[in-house]
Amino acid sequence: MKKSLSGLLLLLLSCAALAAGPSEVLKQAQASMLVTGQIDVTPEGKIKSFAIDQQDKLPAPVVDLLQKNIPTWEFSPVVVDGAPVEARAEMSLRVVAKRVDDQHASIDIEGAHFGQSGETPGETVSKKTAENPRYPDREIQSRVTGTVYVLLKIGRDGNVIDAATEQVNLGVYASERDMNLFRHDLSQATLRALRQWTFNPPSVGKHAADPYWVARVPVNFNLSVNGTPPPQDTYGKWQSYIPGPREIIPWSDKNRLMSASPDASPAGGIYQLDQGLELKTPLAGA
Questions:
Q1: Average of pLDDT values for 125-136?
Q2: Is residue 160 part of a domain?
Q3: Total domain count for the chain?
């Protein structure tokens, strides 16, 4: 969907101006927002109804985009005791804006996560012990911010068997070499910490007897300015960033991974990949 969004274009252009190579960064620069809500799905997997959280805070073109596309979605039916049933899910959607030219930006839904509502306590992995990653020195000195998306393979004893970084999105623009260093530093700091985390394994439900579980954990690195903490209420506001390449992890379920983009998962949560609804149709197919 191509829209004339003057404020958004100014944001993208101003971000590019911070870079050493503006023409190259313009090709990569993006702005995005995470939109949340709820959907109800019929036994056949079609949308019955949906609600968008705090819709009044969202730009009109984003609301139009969602209202046009959400009704077209279809999901794999949810089966309980051998029969398909209605289902409700919490959704988080990553809406991404890219510069087309000096008058237009394109906006699309580029990621989604659908967590099934009404989960029984103990049905999914939950955090037991966890220490936050240490902010790397180079990134503090260079005022680098970003978000690291990690996949964890969790064993039946609640310990991490394996960990790998799917994607690192940066909130700063620099040379390709420097951005690669920043991504590496943030990734390694996150992996060192998360490999020491422990979890409560599922105790009930269809996955309780699985040999292991795979979960996605997003970790934010934010810096305060002159002692002022980063703004907390960013809902409905465009956030500029440069996306990192997405890595496919060999020991993960590739089909489930591709149906749930890493950066559609809100930071601060733990998202078990075999839970929630599975989308069968394109996010922006209308």
A1: 95
A2: yes
A3: 1
